[in-house]
Amino acid sequence: MSDSRETPEDAPQVDELTPPDRTLMGPGPSDVHPRVLRAMSTPLVGHLDPSFIEIMDEVQELMRYTFRTDNRWTIPVSGTGSASMEAAIGNLVEPGDTMLVPTNGYFGGRMASMARRAGGEVVEVDAPWGEPLDPADVEAAFNEHQPDVFGFVHAETSTGVLQPEVPELTSIAHEHDAYVIADCVTSLGGVELRVDDWDIDVAYSGPQKCLSCPPGASPLTLSDRAMDKVLDRETDPRSWYLDLSLLEGYWGDDRSYHHTAPITNVYAIREALRLVAEEGIENRWDRHLEVAGGLKAGLQDMGLEMNAPDEYWLPSLNAVKVPDGVDDAAVIDHLIEEYDLEIASGLGDLAGDIWRIGCMGYSARPKNVEYLLAALEDALAEQGQL
Amino acid sequence: MSDSRETPEDAPQVDELTPPDRTLMGPGPSDVHPRVLRAMSTPLVGHLDPSFIEIMDEVQELMRYTFRTDNRWTIPVSGTGSASMEAAIGNLVEPGDTMLVPTNGYFGGRMASMARRAGGEVVEVDAPWGEPLDPADVEAAFNEHQPDVFGFVHAETSTGVLQPEVPELTSIAHEHDAYVIADCVTSLGGVELRVDDWDIDVAYSGPQKCLSCPPGASPLTLSDRAMDKVLDRETDPRSWYLDLSLLEGYWGDDRSYHHTAPITNVYAIREALRLVAEEGIENRWDRHLEVAGGLKAGLQDMGLEMNAPDEYWLPSLNAVKVPDGVDDAAVIDHLIEEYDLEIASGLGDLAGDIWRIGCMGYSARPKNVEYLLAALEDALAEQGQL
C-alpha cells in the first residue's frame, strides 16, 4: 500500500509481490534469461502500431529460424502452449476428419480430447508410456484407419522420451495423404528439430521450456499445404479466438484487427528467440546434449536410473526412476523447501514412479546441474538413501 | 548481438528491442503503470508452486473486489480479452441453446460468431451503432425468441457508448429464466460496474483497458448459477483450452494441472489490481469521470462534437465526430509521427466518421489529456481546421 493514500476499508490488503527465488529444473517453466525479463518491462506500443508490425515481422523471422522452416505461417499464438496446440488441432481437424493420436504419454490424450471437440473422430496408435512410437505400428494404424491427420509428440514431457525416426513417420503419413502435427513443446530450441527437412506439416510449441521465455505467446508453424486445408474448410473452426483464417488477417499482409495481441509476451519471445539466433540453433542443441549429459551422468553416479534408454533419452526432460523405498513427494518438497529448487513428479501412468527433471534453455547450465545434483544427494540422504 | 560470440551465418540479425515511447490514448492498450511493468520483470516460479497458489488466491480476491462480486468463479483467463469472451460464451452456450446478441456495435457481431461456433442459434436485438439498447426492445426480443442466454456490451469500444439501465436488462432476462453475459472489456476498473448488485451472471473483461495492464490474462467472473449450467453441460465445450470445468480443477480446491498459466501476466494483473484496491474502486470510477470530463470539455471547446450524447457517454472511450473536410487518417498519422501519441479511427459502421480516444486507467491523467488536446489542436490546424 502506498504511504500517503488511504486504502478504502473494503478493499483487500495485498502485499507487494515477493515470490521466492526458485531455480526451475522441472518440466517448465525454466529459468528465464535476465534479458528476456527486462524485455517484459518495456512500455507498450499498440498492437496495430507501425512499430509493432516490424516487431511481428522480426518475431516471425526468428521463429522460422528456430523451427528450421521457411513456412510463411509461423506465428506466436496468443496463449500458453495448449493454445498453440488447440490452434493446430482445432483448425486442421474438421468435423468428419479422423485423427490418429499416440497413447504413449499424457499429451496424446490431450490431442484426442481436442480432436473430438473439433468434431473429429479419434483413432489410436499404441505404445506404452515411456516408449516411442514404432513406425511399423504407425504404418499398421494408417492401413487400418486411413486417418486424415496424424499427431505425434516429438518430446514427451510426461515420460522423458524423444521420438526418433521422425522422417519415417512423416513419410508414412504422406504416403497416405495425411497431414502431420508434431507436438514440439519440449523440443523447440533445445533438441534437434527440422520442420522442413523432416516434412512436418504443422508444429507447435510453448515458450517456457527450451526457449526460457515466460508463457503467454506460443510458437506455431504451418506449411502452405496445411494452411490450404485450413483456408478451404467448409465450416468455421469452433474457436473464434484461435481461428487461423482470421489470424491470417492480422499476421498476414492485411494487418487488420482480430484480437489484441499479448504485446509484452511478443516482446519477450522476440528477445528469447534473439538469444537462440545469437547462440546458433545447432550450438544450442549441442549445449543441451552436453549439459543434460552431465546431469544424466551425475544421476547415474548417484545410483539412480533413467526411465528412458539412451536411444530415446530426451535431454530437455530427464525422467528418473524413484528408487524403491523413497517417498518421491518428500524429495520434491525437500528440494523446494531447503533449496528453492523445483523438479516435478510423474504424471498419469508414471505417477509415483519417476521424477521429472528439466534441463531447458537458460536452466541448461552446468551451474544449475551441479546445484541440482548436490541438492538431490542431500534429499536422498534425508530419506536414508545413499 | 553479444560482443564475444559469433552469430552463425544463417541466423537472422535482429537488433535490441527499442520500440518508440508512445502515449497510449486509443481504445487499448492504455499506458501501463510503472509498478506493473516492474512486476513483469519478476523471475518466475512454477505454475504449481505453493507460492503461486497464494498469488492466485490474491488475484482472485482483488478481481472480485474490482468486479464488485462475491462470485467464487472469478479468474484470469490465459489469453487476451477475446479469450475471456470466448470462455464465457463457449462454456455457457450449448448446442441447441439460443443466444440473444445486440447489433449496436462491433462486439455484438463477435458474440454472434462465438455463439454460432459453440453450436448455438443466434437471434438479435436491434439498435443502431452509436446507441444503447432500449429495454423495451430487449423485452420484445425475449418474448419473440425466448433465448437461453442474453449478451450485451456494457461499454462499447467501437462506438463510445455506455449501456445504461443494466439492472433493467438483467431483470428482463431473469424473468425469462435466461443467463446474462456482460462484455465489460472497456468498463472494468474505469466505469461503475456492480456485478452482484446488477445481477449479472457472467462478466468478462480485458486487462489492457481501464486496468492498464499488458494483455495476456483476462478477467472473467461467473455466478454459481452460471457455473452450475457449465458443470451440467451434456456435451464438452468445444475448446479444451477454455473449458471452465477443467479450469475449475486448477483454480478451485484441487489445484491440479490443466495448462501452464501465464505466470508473468498473472503477476502483472495482480499488481494492476492492487493499484485498483489502493485507489479504491469507487474513487477510480470518479477519477475516470473527472479526467474524461476534462477531455470531453476540451474537445468541445475546440468545436468538436462527441458521437454519444451525455446520457450514455462512455468516459473510458470517447468517440469524437470527424469534422467535415478533415482526413481522419491524416490526423491519426500526424499524432503518431509528431507526438508519439496513439488514438484510433472508427470501426465498422462508423469507419471514417469518428476518432476513438481512450481515457483509461493510468492513461486517465490530466497530463495525458492536456497533451492530447494540444497535439490534436495542432493536427487539426495542419488540416486547415481551427
Structural descriptors:
homodimer; 386 residues; alpha/beta; Aspartate Aminotransferase, domain 1; Aspartate Aminotransferase, domain 2; seven-stranded mixed beta sheet; three-stranded antiparallel beta sheet; transferase (chains A, B); PyrdxlP-dep_Trfase (chains A, B)
Summed up, the helix count of chain A is 12
Strand line-up in the sheet with most strands of chain A: 2-10-9-8-5-3-4
Q: What is the largest interface, and how many residues per chain?
A: A-B, 95 and 96 residues
Looking at the structure, the CATH topology of the largest domain in chain A is Aspartate Aminotransferase, domain 2
Major sheet details of chain A? 7 strands, mixed
> What shape does the CA trace of chain A take?
globular
- The CATH architecture term of the largest domain in chain A is 3-Layer(aba) Sandwich
Strand content of chain A: 5-15%
Task: Give the oligomer, counting copies of the same chain as homo and different chains as hetero.
Answer: homodimer
SSE order of chain A: EHHEHEHEHEEEHEEEHHHHEHEEEH
Percent of residues in helices of chain A comes to: 25-40%
Average pLDDT across residues of chain A?
Answer: 96
Rg value of chain A: 22 Å
**Content-based structural category of chain A:** alpha/beta
Q: Regarding CATH, which class of the largest domain in chain A?
A: Alpha Beta
Number of E strands of chain A: 14
Given as residue ranges, the uncertain stretches of chain A (5+ residues, pLDDT < 50) are: none
The CATH superfamily of the largest domain in chain A appears as: Type I PLP-dependent aspartate aminotransferase-like (Major domain)
